[in-house]
Design goal:
Glucose Oxidase, domain 1; seven-stranded mixed β-barrel; 24% helix; 34% strand
């Protein structure tokens, strides 16, 4: 038996998404580290090298690298090769700008949420589908996933 767990975080970009968790324990630079045309991590030293973010909820502590990462993320979102939602432990302006640009230019809304450290760590253990609800008229967003029910 399973039950839902919901946490609340800070909305950095609005939207609603659901998908499987793609946990990136190491930060990723989209600029030079992600192929937005093919949807794979190409940073050779990244632990998730060769894996795709397409259709997933990307869970990562933060991004790294250049502000140009925003444009690569926006293009991945436009191409359908990027994550459908993003959960961060730290507020990240570069990631947020990429999602906001995709929303404004392409009308594709990928929610970006920053969680507290404890809530982020809890999401890292999610083993199924995660739902993100980040309404444009609220500063908060909710993240929900299923956990085994207590006996």
């Amino acid at each position: 038996m399973r039950t839902d767990r919901t946490v609340t975080g800070v909305m950095l970009s609005h939207g609603t998404a659901f998908g499987p968790v793609k946990l990136l324990r190491a930060p990723l630079s989209f600029w030079g580290g992600y192929d937005s045309a093919n949807g794979v991590i190409v940073e050779k030293t990244h632990p998730c090298f060769g894996q795709s973010l397409a259709g997933s909820v990307m869970v990562t502590p933060r991004a790294k690298g250049s502000s140009s990462s925003s444009s690569v993320l926006a293009e991945a979102i436009r191409n359908g090769t990027g994550p459908v939602g993003i959960i961060l432990r730290e507020r990240d302006l570069i990631i947020a700008i990429g999602a906001i640009v995709a929303s404004d230019l392409y009308d594709i809304h990928v929610p970006v949420v920053a969680l507290s450290e404890a809530d982020f760590d809890a999401v890292c253990t999610a083993d199924g589908i995660v739902h993100i609800h980040a309404r444009a008229d609220h500063g908060a967003a909710s993240v929900t996933w299923s956990v085994p029910a207590s006996v």
